[in-house]
Amino acid sequence: MSELLGLLAEGMQLASDLGYRVREEPLGDMPGGGCVVAGQRQILLNLEQGPAERLEHLLDALAADPHVGNEPKSRALATRLQERSSSNGPGS
To answer: What SS3 class is residue 82?
Structure first.
């Protein structure tokens, strides 16, 4: 669980470094994800979901960013992002 929470925290910092505002809010049945509000790129994470689900939505949003590869990150986070990019890339 601590590794999961560490990845979530690192992912949120990476998102911030890339210019996203990360918001953790209760969203009801909405899963969350990336969006733009008043010109500001944001990632919404549903506090009603567990850390694993929030991490998955965060990774989905980050993997779609073309600049994510240019930022420093742990090997564990890089691997998770690469898995996301591969499964969502061309031919998937």
So the answer is: helix
CA dihedral 57, 34, 3, 53 (to 10 degrees): -20
Spatial distance between the Cα atoms of 36 and 86, rounded to a whole number of angstroms: 24
Residues 62 and 52: beta-carbon distance below 8 Å: no
The residues that bridge with 33 in the sheet, in sequence order, are 44
> Given strand 32-37, what is the order of strands in its sheet?
21-25, 40-46, 32-37
Pair 55, 4: CB distance under 8 Å? yes
Rounded to two decimals, the pTM is: 0.89
Domains of the chain: 2-88 (3.30.2010)
* Residues 77 and 58: beta-carbon distance below 8 Å: no
DSSP H helical ranges for 1-92: 2-17, 51-63, 75-88
pLDDT tens-place string over residues 43-57? 999 999 999 999 999
